[in-house]
Amino acid sequence: MNPQLLFWVPATVRMSLLLLGAGILWFFFGPTIGLGVGLASVCLMVFIQLHYLYRLSGWLDNPDSEKLPDGWGAWTDIFSRLYRLRRHDEKNRTELTEWLARFRQAMSLLPDGVVIMDDVLFLEWCNPAAEKHLGLKNSRDKGMRVTNLIRNPDFMDYIILGRYEQPLTLSLRERKLIVQIIPFENRRQILVTHDVTESERIEMMRRDFIANASHELRTPLTVINGFLEIASSQANLDPQTRAAHLKLMTEQGHRMQNLVEDMLTLTRLESIDYPLRPERVVINNLLEQIVEEAKALSAGRHTITIAADGPDVRGSTEELRSTFSNLVSNAVRYTPEGGQIKLSWKMSKTGPQFAVQDNGIGISAEHITRLTERFYRVDKSRSRETQGTGLGLAIVKHVLLRHDAILSIESKPEHGSTFIVTFPKTAAVTDGIEYSGERAAVG
Q1: Residue 105 falls within a domain, yes or no?
Q2: Residue 395 sits in which domain range?
Q3: Residues 118 and 57 in one domain
Q4: How far is Cα 254 from Cα 329, in angstroms, rounded to an integer?
Q5: Residues 209, 191: contact at Cβ < 8 Å?
Q6: How many C-beta atoms lie closer than 10 Å to residue 186's C-beta?
Q7: Which of 7, 17, 155, 316 is surrounded by the fewest CB atoms within 10 Å?
Q8: Which DSSP string corresponds to 97-137?
Q9: Does one domain contain both 322 and 266?
């Protein structure tokens, strides 16, 4: 039924009954009493309606201050309808609050920065990523103009020109950001920031790697191609010259092969398709093999000693062999003839520890932090003399990352270097044996 009829029908019935009662009183007791009672009844009804109007007006002025008033007659239906509307509105507000909380939680977890501003760029809300990228703080900066918070000439020009269809590349707070403003609604704008610092660094490393690899391969290829051209153009080369050329070509071919193998090793170490498969690594056997290889590489030019009193560890035998061998062979290559190279394996306070100490040429402090970069060379001419590929310490770094181990380097020019590999305590396989940390000399 139409809600208006629900209001008018009871009111018409009550008015009709009131008039009928006044007429009966008029008929039996005269017009004075009939009119008096009718007028009093009308005044009472008007007072009741004004009372409920007053209560309704007070509730509408402050609907949350008190309970919705009860009604009588048609007011019962009016108040019940208002009650249903209020419950529906409260439900919508609760849902909206929950949705807004979920939205903000989702925005807070985004890796990209999100800043919500009004049409005149006053900050309304920002997520933690935006705080990190732009130096904002939501609790402190809310209500402030964003252009007063981000003081960057390029950003100001971007705002003034208003060409928001194109993103802006911005260098801010030692980060490289892709920034774009997206208008939405009539009086809101979203500022989105994407941090490309790491991707730019990786891209630069990729370019450097390709350039360095190409450069490293070019030299041996040039030597080999040059000798092949000489051999093809001069058929009557004397045996001694031919043998010298073949020897150099063989050396350069081995150099290329080593370089390619090292690059493939790095690729494998970085790939998720080759997870670490831990096994028990018998360290004493491994170190004995490495010492024999080091002595063969040294050819008697150095004094090589080893002291081992440490546990076996869990890891990849081949990867740790490559790591330890790289560190030891570097010590042999960069230690002058007559130098000393000391290897040690012990259980330290922080975990199993392997160290290679030499009294060679040493390394300046400014180079130490970059030694594990690919193709980084302290002395390029010296590196080529020692036949290094420039990837050995990069391989060491990635192997140790896979084993949760760390590499620390101590060095002083002209006094030698010490490379220390420390494994976590959880990597040790002790079989109940206590290790004092004292080192027993072997060989």
Answers
A1: no
A2: 279-442
A3: no
A4: 17
A5: no
A6: 6
A7: 17
A8: HHHHHHHHHHHHH-SSEEEEEETT-BEEEE-HHHHHHH---
A9: no
Q: Which phi and psi angles does 224 have, rounded to 5°?
A: -65, -45
Q: Which of 13, 37, 42 has the alpha carbon at shortest distance from 24?
A: 37
Show pLDDT as tens, one digit a residue, over the chain (443 residues): 455 544 555 666 666 776 777 677 777 777 777 677 777 777 877 777 777 777 777 666 666 545 666 666 666 667 677 777 777 887 888 888 888 788 888 888 889 999 999 988 999 999 999 999 999 999 999 999 998 999 889 999 898 888 888 899 998 888 899 999 998 877 889 999 999 998 888 888 778 777 777 777 787 888 888 888 887 777 677 788 888 888 888 888 888 887 888 788 887 887 777 888 889 999 999 999 999 999 998 889 999 999 998 899 999 999 999 999 999 999 998 899 999 999 999 999 999 999 999 998 888 888 888 888 877 777 655 545 555 667 889 889 999 999 999 999 999 888 899 999 999 999 998 776 656 544 433 34
Separation of alpha carbons 280 and 428, rounded Å:
9
Helices first, then strands: H and E counts in the chain: 14, 14
Domain shared by 186 and 128, yes or no: yes
Where b means 16+ CB within 10 Å and e means fewer, 214-235 reads eebeeebeebbeebeeeeeeee
Segment (H or E) for 358? strand 352-358
Q: What is the rounded CA–CA span in Å between residue 379 and residue 89?
A: 76
Domain CATH for 400: 3.30.565.10
Name every residue whose Cβ is closer than 8 Å to that of residue 270 and which is 6 or more positions away in sequence.
398
Cβ-based neighbours of 262, under 8 Å, separated by 6 or more: 389, 391, 392, 395
β-pairing, 188-195 with 113-118?
antiparallel
Burial of 82 (0-12, 13-18, 19+ CB in 10 A): middle
Name the token pair of 395.
Answer: 């391989």
Q: What is the pTM (predicted TM-score) of this model?
A: 0.57
CA 129 to CA 127: how far, in whole Å? Answer: 6
Strand partners, 407: 421
DSSP class of residue 427 equals G
Order across the sheet with 416-422: list the strands.
406-412, 416-422, 352-358, 340-347, 303-309, 441-442
Q: Is the dihedral of CA 98, 100, 103, 105 positive or negative?
A: negative
CB 341 within 8 A of CB 357: yes
How many distinct structural domains can be found in the chain? 4
The values of phi and psi at residue 109, to 5°, are -90, -5
